Amino acid sequence: MENFEPVIVAFCCHYCAYTAADMAGSQRLTYPANIKIIRVPCSGKVDAIHIIKAFEKGADGVYVAGCLDGDCHFKNGNNRASRRVEYVQKYLDEIGIGGERLEMVKMSAGMGYLFAKIASEMTEKIRKLGPSPVRPLTVQASQPTAS
Amino acid sequence: MITAERKPLEELIEFVRPFKRILLVGCNECVTVCSAGGRKEVGLLASGLKMALLQSGNTIEIREHTLERQCDPEYIDELLPMIDGVDAVMSMACGCGVQEVARRYKNMPVFPAVNTKFMGASERPGVWAERCQGCGNCLLGVTGGICPIARCSKRLMNGPCGGSVTGKCEISQDVDCAWQLIWDRLKELGLEDQYLKIIPAKDWRTAGGGGPRKIIREDLTA
Ligand code: SF4
Ligand code: SF4
User: Fold this and answer.
1) Which CATH class is domain B2-117?
2) Domains in chain A and their CATH numbers?
3) pLDDT by residue (tens digit) across A110-123?
4) Which of B50, B118, B131, B199 has the fewest CB atoms within 10 Å, i.e. is most exposed?
5) Is A96 in CB contact (< 8 Å) with chain B?
């Protein structure tokens, strides 16, 4: 697995993490290309079904990035997101994928450096964990079988 | 509403493991409101089951469908075109829905995906609490609108037991004493006299003690 390049989906709030990713870019900070960003209007918009579907479709890791405590544009969407992430972590444990492949992170729009740092740390963490236990199988299962 | 909670995934995996193709059916009523078995939960469970089974090399096809209501035969008929070709049905409705699907599709193994809990109300987002046990002869009119059957741990009918301390029931600090609530409410309404009236021993036949219950409305029967 030394050449394993994880696929990581990051659900990023439009008001903070998404802008922070932009900031990282304009500051010429590098972060791994493994991160696939999905912009959401608020981290609280990310539902359990979005996270689970990301894993079903082959993600090795997922994180939800919302605003710092007290800074949510919609008051408390970030805290709702945190609780939802905890709930889905338990479900991932039940499924056998492992809750540690999912994380909640918080940052402000100006924290380009933090966005880049989290992206690298998450990539490293998932690289160590190895491919998602359902990834090779999902690829296999979606291929038409002869018979 | 009737409240429910999803069963542990492990139990559900064992139900479906022998099958290649199943139909997973949700219900748009109570179990949707208590986030146990609506369209979204059907999607979550279908993905979870598929991914869990894949890890032991099993692939399963799961058809997903959520009915407007799963305790009325008219709606259950809707499943007919989808049921063709599946090996089993898993229902995310309350026990009533599961049984109605089983009654309609006689040759089909049917499994419950949720544990049906109680008739309750939503206290605040994410919290549901028991409110009624369907005793068939409602006492709320004389108990200040608070049910001593569903909410008193001993189902007492005439005032609290000796375990009522500072408004809490002796079984737990997290449980309000129903009789304290009743007394407080009667006092607020100026209906203290009501409290002194003795509620006679209850006839539990209407509560199920007389066997399975049924309502027959002749004016509506076909
Ligand atoms: S008295 Fe009987 S019918 Fe009325 S709320 Fe209590 S259990 Fe339900
Ligand atoms: S403490 Fe109150 S609620 Fe608990 S059993 Fe006694 S009377 Fe019922």
Assistant:
1) alpha beta
2) 8-141 (3.40.50)
3) 999 999 999 999 99
4) B199
5) yes
